[in-house]
Amino acid sequence: MVLQVQTSTYEAKTQEIAKQLLAATQENRSFFSSLRDQMRWDDKLLAWAMSNPGLRVQLFRFIDTLPALHSKSEIASHLQEYLGDESVELPAALKGMLNFANPDSVPGQVAATTVGTAVETLAHKYISGENIKQVIKTVERLRKEKMAFTIDLLGEAVITEPEAQSYLERYLELMQQLVEASKNWSAIPAIDEADGEAIPKVQVSVKLTAFYSQFDPLDAKGSEERVSDRIRTLLRRAKELGAAVHFDMEQYAYKDITLSILKKLLLEEEFRQRTDIGITIQAYLRDSEQDVKDVISWLKQRGYPLTIRLVKGAYWDQETIKAAQKHWKQPVYNDKAATDANFETITQLLLENHQYVYSAIGSHNVRSHSRAIAIAESLNVPRRRFELQVLYGMGDKVAKALVDRGYRVRVYCPYGELLPGMAYLIRRLLENTANSSFLRQNLENRPIEELLAPPIVKEEKNSLTPNVQTRLIASLQTPNSHFLGAADTDYAQEEVRTKAAQAFQNVRQQLGKTYLPLINGEYVNTPEFVDSLNPSNFSEVIGKVGLISVEQAEQAMQAAKAAFPGWKKTPAKQRADILRKAGDLLEERRAELSVWIVLEVGKPVKEADGEVSEAIDFCRYYADEIERLDKGVNYDIPGETNHYIYQPRGIAVVISPWNFPLAIACGMTVAALVSGNCTLLKPAETSSVITAKLTEILIEAGFPKGVFQYVPGKGSQVGAYLVNHPDTHVIAFTGSQEVGCRIYAEAATLKPGQKHIKRVIAEMGGKNAIIVDESADLDQAVVGVVQSAFGYSGQKCSAASRVIVLQPIYDAFIQRLVEATKSLNIGEAELPSTQVGPVIDANARDRIHEYIEKGKAEAQLALELPAPEQGYFIGPVIFSEVLPNAVISQQEIFGPVLAVIRVKDFQEALTVANGTNYALTGGLYSRTPSHIQQAQTEFEVGNLYINRNITGAIVGRQPFGGFKLSGVGSKAGGPDYLLQFLEPRAVTENIQRQGFAPIEGAD
Asked: Quick one: pLDDT at residue 459?
């Protein structure tokens, strides 16, 4: 139902003011100024982007790449690659300009100069200066026009601690120079004072997350401590100088912790009486109205007002996509009218509480400003407590019209080098060229009634599954199903973090228990036990695990044989429903299972939670898949039916690894079970408690006795016995190449009494490489490489152990990589601040140390971080100038050791990347379309990731597995994985009787 926002007492006044403002902004320009604008390439680019969606996408991608291009030839060639795409319909002028044969030719150089200059001109429209001197010139011009300012520092993303410290120091310097310059400014009553109170002439806007490179809501306490120290330094200096400080709001994930930190800090005695500080609220967020009510209540308690800057919000695309990918509730309104309506609601809320809060209404929409003015005038809001804001380069005419009406207007002025400022520029361009943009609609001379109409909301205001999210999620679905994965835990929510802390307390009370094998539905005693230890603290026993003997392995095999006929006949739908129940139980016990993973194998909290999601996904995905496969395929012809069907193979032996103790064990096991095979799960000894927990869940879900059995034991004895057993039909293994190849060889040998060929599915690791070319976004590449190489201490099959970097950016990349890695927190896996935990055990630690010593002999040591003593810790190690054939470039290390290899060009990068025995995962950071295309074709890996980290494959989205010596078999979590546990049959029946057969459609 379409709901009209209730017309309030302020509406008539809003319309009257808006019409006056609009008239002032739409004055006819002279013929010559119109002609001049039509001749400018920056205006042409904007106009084309507005009228051509395909060009808009490619043009903005090109602009995003521009900072990485250092010659006219590179600019020319990228122009052709982006805008020469077949999907892009080019205006004649642009098509003519791009029609050069060679980027080094004169026409190529002219094209590069023309477009490069146009983009630079565009940037200057929205960025107030490249250095402090230029900024001072800009703000002095603004002040002559009776406009106040706030300065925001643009630059590279803060991903290292030196960058976070530099961010603080640059703001201290900025305030110092602005205040120094302001001593020469004459007072302007309209903006420097109100109601007899002086207003600071200098204001800066800062981003909280930039004060700490590892800012993370999961580590709320640690982030607060690190950020607050730097904020106190900033606020103290601002007070000494007489400058005001405003805190911007960023992505939704940081909103609650940002508000929490500022509320706590600004109640401290030293800062409680400060009124020269502001915070930001984004009206496109569904919970923003409640946030404002909470802040107002807090301000009443504080007793001194602060400024709330109200904006629409700048990360809509990013928030919408992230929510869809994560299967989280969408935090933003998907309808611009809903945002506009909420903006007006919050504007009214702020102004009605003007005794507690100073309102700063930031918009370029004439109606939004007019609404604020109508309310402020009706309520007689004092001038000090109300101002209007615009972004530099946007809404200039609106700003002038507002000043002329006597209102205080503040211009938000980003400053910094143009090239690092491109991300900001693109956000502004997206805003200016969007169909729903007021600025665009005004340029297009839409009717005044349409421009100024009250926002009409087309959906329930608090809807949590908007249409846009539904469409985006649908676009993520697999072709074979409507599969939607489990949502990871959102640790940005405080109640979720509290629940996680409680789960740690609960699990700790259960440590040290004994876990027995499950054979034929009974937990049985064993002759031998092993302690499973916490790798973060090896004096802590997680549990005692009973290891079966070879005789008990034989009992389990006989139980499986006895159970197989009945399980084989169990309908696929019934087997699938048991699996779905298991998925639901995993979800119910998510927080607890995450803790067991953290404690038993030393995996940091977020990664442990992601692993539980993967286990849930395997259950639900394979349940859907077996129902699809169970339908078979009909190839009927007149007089004959031909049915292609599948049947289970028999008995499956699953040998699971310790590095994904729940997800991989669960995935291989439930795939075998749901396909109708009786399954024996033999986990790695170091992670047998987690598989005992999985066993509890599978039994509760309803797998009958003998169908699933949990058989922990020594790999060299029990594992070998089961692999060689003549009644074993399928072996699913994840582990080292050495063991995998041995299993493959042994399985190929026909044993006495064996009447079938064994099927082996083996995933055997990789020597995974990420290529970083000269066009890469280094902010993105450094973060992605650090996550891929050092997440879970490099102990993922998919982890990056090589990064291959092109010569032009090698030194810059190494420098930032080393600093970003130095900024990581190393510690016990359960600590919320930890990014690098321990390795699995003493053997792994010692083996990795041996590789580090080999690396020191054959390459340059760029970084070796110290590590805690009490667990099996190894600090991240980076080697530079590594040769492609070095030991550390060729052999799988399975630890936090990264080899950085220098190459001269992209072709050499691919050759080096492909120059190992493995082909599991690989990555590419590039903004060159031809390189991306070439990598898709020539990079020899099972899973290729472009412009993102290379770990964290998601079931049904990125089916996982490799080739060469990385493994044999199909990809886990993909549409053909279950086929490996099944045998196909074709059944043909002649349905003619005495020449008669039913013919469909005949009478």
From this structure: 59
Whether residue 763 lies in the annotated active site: yes
Q: Which 3 state secondary structure label does DSSP give 641? A: strand
Q: Which two tokens stand for residue 893?
A: 């290390």
Residues 855, 900 contacting (CB under 8 angstroms) = no
Q: How far is it, in rounded angstroms, from Cα 24 to Cα 620?
A: 60
The number of helices, as runs of H, and strands, as runs of E, in the chain is: 36, 35
663 contacts 618 by C-beta, under 8 angstroms: yes
CA-nearest of 134, 152, 274, 267 to 205 is 152
pTM value > 0.70: yes
Give the closest residue to 614 by CA, choosing from 128, 951, 189, 176: 951
Which of these, 696, 772, 738, lies nearest to 516 by C-alpha position? 696
* Cβ atoms < 10 Å from Cβ of 396: 17
What does residue 5 show for φ and ψ, rounded to 5 degrees? Answer: -60, 135
What was the pLDDT predicted at 436? Answer: 58
Q: Which residues fall within 8 angstroms of residue 558, CB to CB, at 6 or more apart?
A: none
- The catalytic position among 763, 828, 830, 892 is 763
Token couple for 351: 């102004």
Among 797, 828, 830, 892, the active-site one is 797
Which of 482, 189, 490, 500 is closest to 319 using CA atoms? Answer: 490
The residue whose two tokens read 């640790």 is 491
Q: What angle do CA 251, 257, 260 make, to 5 degrees?
A: 135
331-342 b/e (C-beta count within 10 Å ≥ 16 → b):
bbbbbbbbbbbb
Distance (Å, rounded) from C-alpha 128 to C-alpha 146? Answer: 17
What tokens were used for 994?
Answer: 């005495």
Q: Residue type for 284, please?
A: Y
Q: How many residues does the chain have?
A: 1003
pLDDT of residue 432: 63
For residue 83, give the H/E element and its range: helix 72-83
Structure tokens at 966: 């990385």
DSSP-H helix ranges across 145-214: 161-182, 189-192
Q: How many CB atoms sit inside 10 A of residue 625's CB?
A: 28
- Residue 193 near residue 187, CB atoms below 8 Å: yes
Exposed, middle or buried, 388 (CB in 10 Å: 0-12/13-18/19+)? buried
The span from the CA of 620 to the CA of 113, in Å, is: 55
> Cα separations (Å) of 810 from 156, 863, 915?
18, 16, 20
At residue 617's C-alpha, the angle toward residues 611 and 623, to 5°, is 145
Separation CA 690–CA 118 (nearest Å): 59
Q: Tell me, what DSSP letter sits at residue 928? A: -
Q: What average pLDDT values come out for the chain (1003 residues) when binned by 10 residues?
A: 49 91 69 48 72 82 88 93 83 84 91 88 88 95 97 88 95 97 95 94 96 95 96 98 97 96 97 97 97 98 97 91 93 92 97 97 93 96 96 89 95 86 74 58 67 79 46 48 87 95 97 98 97 96 98 98 98 98 98 98 98 98 97 94 97 98 98 98 97 98 98 96 98 96 96 96 96 96 98 97 98 97 97 97 97 98 94 97 98 98 98 98 97 98 98 95 95 97 97 78 59
- DSSP sequence for 667-733: HHHHHHHHTT-EEEEE--GGGHHHHHHHHHHHHHHTPPTTTEEE----IIIIIHHHHH-TT--EEEE
Q: Cα–Cα distances in Å, from 390 out to 69, 222, 283, 724?
A: 32, 35, 15, 74
Distances from the Cα of 926 to the Cαs of 108, 109, 783, in angstroms?
A: 22, 23, 14
Q: What is the DSSP letter of 524?
A: -
SS3 state at 311: strand
* DSSP secondary structure letter of residue 807: G
Segments in 331-452 forming alpha helices (H): 336-352, 366-379, 396-404, 422-433, 438-443, 448-452
